[in-house]
Amino acid sequence: ADGVGGALNDYAATASVSINLAVPAIDKRSAAPAGAPIGASVTYPILITLPEGLTRGLIVVDDLPLGLAYASHSIVTTVAGSGGLLTADYNGVLPAPVITAPGTSGDDVTFNFGDVPTAADATTTNNAFVIFVTARVVNETDNQNGDILSNYAHLIYTDSETGATTIADNIAEIVTVLEPELDIAKSADDTTPAYGQTLTYTL
User: Fold this and answer.
1) Would the pTM of this model clear 0.85, i.e. be above it?
2) Which has the closest alpha carbon to 153: 78, 48, 33, 67?
3) Distance set, CA 110 to CA 2, 121, 196 (Å)
């Protein structure tokens, strides 16, 4: 036993705990308007929420379907410009992305932000920003009245252990193609005319 002049006893104990680290999240919202004619535009919001700290290699992809073509975009980090999607201004440094947008029917739009630092302030409401993507309904044979165009989005980031990791929003946001349906009617001003009488037809 330990005591004055006694030998020392060494004591050791180990313990472990698992911590689930937060990961980026993506939420594509409904288009406005929900239906559009050929040549018109629709706008999709894509809500991106990041974990506090550094998100490496962030890429956001809008998977536009055939029948829609990229027209423009805007990136919003403030409540005022978010249309109610943000509850607080984004508290981080969002780099200007490198954008790949071919702009033809069905071509995806890619926003490559690289490494994105989000402030570690223990506040969960200020870690998000919004990408508004505007697409045009293309004048092509496959776009017919009543057709449903389903749109998805996903993001990619670099996980420190697993490398490039994809997170997808697999809920389709849809747009209905609208086209005018022509209807013509013809009528005469007299349905029982006499021989030689002049008739007036209205279309």
Assistant:
1) no
2) 48
3) 68, 29, 72
